From TrEMBL:
Top-level taxon in the UniProt lineage: Bacteria
SMART domains with a match to the protein in the record: A1pp (SM00506)
Family matches, as InterPro entries: Macro_dom, Macro_dom-like
Macro domain segment(s): 1-145
Name of the protein: Macro domain-containing protein
Length: 145
């Protein structure tokens, strides 16, 4: 939750923490210290956005896929999306953007399926944005949506 510590690393985690300002890292560090352990994969926490042009940042630890993609990886990614949507609704967040590093097609399928199922089962009106970095990803999401 406290961000990437590799200088000049171009990951989304580092970008969020850089532009939010040191206040976000400090806030997250205090949260982690208070809970006494690292954030489990698939769960979510919400923090203020600080210097970002948004009210909140919802943090989740996604599964790291090294090698073959497993059912467990897919279940954990599903849990990430669901946990983020739930905490967003609990805090009256009107829109949410998702960014994850995961194999392209399975990530898109899990994301779309989870969001559709969540919105249908809860009646949530949250606006969901899937942020993609590659044209391939955009095409996959267009196909699925």
């Amino acid at each position: 939750m406290s961000g990437c510590y590799q200088p000049c690393h171009n990951c989304i985690d580092n970008c969020i923490h850089t532009y939010a300002g040191i206040q976000l890292r400090n806030y997250c560090a205090k949260l982690m210290e208070k809970q006494g352990h690292e954030e489990p994969t698939g769960k979510a926490k919400i923090t203020p956005g600080f210097n970002l042009p948004c009210d909140f940042v919802i943090h989740t630890v996604g599964p790291i896929v090294q090698g073959k993609l497993t059912i467990r990886h897919e279940e954990l990614l599903h849990s990430c999306y669901e946990s983020c949507l739930k905490i967003a609704d609990e805090n009256n967040v009107e829109s949410i953007a998702f960014v994850f590093m995961f194999p392209n097609r399975p990530a898109a399928e899990i994301a779309v399926q989870t969001v559709k199922k969540y919105k249908q089962s809860t009646g949530s009106q949250i606006k969901v944005i899937f942020n993609v970095f590659k044209d391939l990803d955009r095409e996959i999401y267009k196909e699925l949506l």
